Amino acid sequence: MERFSDFIAELSSWLWGYPLLTLLFGTHIFLTFRLGFVQRHIGKAIRLSVTRDKDSHGDVSQFSALATALAATIGTGNIVGVATAIAMGGPGAIMWTWLAGILGISTKYAEGLLALKYRVKREDGSIAGGPMYYLRYGLKNKLAGRILGSMFAAMAAMAAFGIGSSAQSNSIKDAVFTTFGLAGEVGIFGFSVSTKVLTGVVLALLVGLVIVGGIRSIARVSQSVVPFMACFYVAGCLWILTTGWETLWDSLGIIVSQAFSLEAVGGGAAGSAIMLAARYGVSRGLFSNESGLGSAAIVAAAARTRNPVRQALVSSSGTFWDTVVICALTGLTIVNTGAYESGLTGFNLTRLAFAEIPCGELMLGVALLMFAFTTIIGWSYYAEKSIEYLFGRKSVLPYKAVFLAMVFVGAVFSIDLVWNFADITNGLMAIPNLVALILLSGVIAAETKKYIKGDDIDKHSDDRIIES
User: Fold this and answer.
1) Half-sphere exposure of 259 (CA within 13 A, CB side)
2) In this structure, are residues 38 and 106 in contact, taking their beta carbons and an 8 Å threshold?
3) Where are the domains of the chain?
4) Which of 249, 262, 376, 468 is the most buried (most CB within 10 A)?
5) pLDDT digits over 210-266, tens only?
6) 96 Cβ contact list (under 8 Å, min separation 6)
7) What's this model's pTM, rounded to 2 decimal places?
C-alpha cells in the first residue's frame, strides 16, 4: 500500500509539474489576447451577476449559478492553498497567484460561454451542460468529442470523491479539533462515540439534506451562505490588515520584489527563486479558482440567461472574487503579520496570522467550516451531472449515496492518498477542457464580438437549446 501511495504521489507531482501548469497558464494568456482582454468588462460582469434575466431558459438565476460555482470554488484553497504557496514559494508566490487570477478570468469566461452555447435539455425538462457537452457537440471530429467528453465526465465524477467530498470533510474535522478542541470521544445516550465518527455522521446528514433537492436546493443554500461566508472571511482579513496598516506598503514591496527575484535558493542556480514563486503561486491560484478545469461551466449551463455572453461574464466574476480578492487578501495578511517567517505551512500558517486579532482563530475556524461545507454541496452537483452524462438519470441516486459515504470517510480516516488522487483526476479533467477551449476559441471570439463589441449584450440569443 505504501508503494502505491508513493506512486500516486509521484504521478500527481509529475502531472502538475511545469508542462500542465504551462498549458493552463498559456491558455489563460492565449484567451486573454484572443478575446481582446475581456477582463476589462469585470464591472459589467459584477452588475449582471445580481440582475435577473427574465423570459430566459434555465433552471436557476444567474446569481444562483454564480453562487453555486463560488460555493465549490471558495474553499480550503483560499486558506490552506495560499498558505502552502507562501511556505513553498515565498511571499512572491502571492503575486503569481494574483496574476493567475487576473488572466484566468478570460478562461472562466470562455468556459461559461461554451457551456451556454452547447447546453442541452434533458427528457425531464432539466438543463445540462459543461465541457462534456461542448466537447461532444462543438468539436468537428464527433468521435474525438465523445471520447474526450466522456473522459472529462469520468474524471469529474472521480475527483468529486476526493477534492469534492472526503478532502473537504477531513478539513472540517481538523477545524473542529483544532479550533474547538473537540478531539476524543463524547457520550451519547450512554454510549461513548468518537468525535471523528460523530462529525462524519452529522456532516453527511447535513449534506444529504441539501443535495437531495438537486440544483435548486443547492443553489438556494449557496446564494444564502456564500455571500455571508465570503464577507465574514474578508472582514477578518481587513481587520488584521487595518491593525498593521503601517507596514502594508513594505509588505507589498516584499511580495512584488520576491515574485521576480533572480536570487538563488539553497545554493541553486540563479533564477530558482522566481521559478519557485511562479510554480507554487500559479498552481495554487489555479487550484483555488478552477479556471481551466471546466467544473464551473457545469453549473453555468443551468443559468437563466438570454444569451451565452451574459452568463459567461457572470461566471468570469467568480475568478475575480475567489483569487483576485480573497486569495490576495489571505496572502497579504500572512505576509504583513510576519507569519510567513515562522516556518509553518498550510492551515497553521494562516491560523498564526489570524491570532493577531481577538477571536481571530475562532473566525478562521468558522470560515473554514463554511468554506469546506459549501465546496462539498457545489461539487455534488458537478458530480451529479457528470454521472448523468455517462450513465443516465437512474445512476444519480446510487452515486449520491456513495458520495455521502465518502463525506463520512473523509472525516474519519487519514486521506493523504485521496488528496494526491484528486490532484491527478483534476489534471485529467483539465486536459480535455483546455483542448476544447483552444479548438473552439474561434466560436468564443465570434460570440464575444457579436454581443460585446456589437453592444448587443441585452439581445436574446437565436440559438436553440439542443434536445437530448
Assistant:
1) 18
2) yes
3) 2-455
4) 376
5) 998 888 899 898 888 888 989 999 999 999 999 999 999 999 999 999 888 766 444
6) 89, 259, 277, 278, 280, 281, 282, 285
7) 0.91
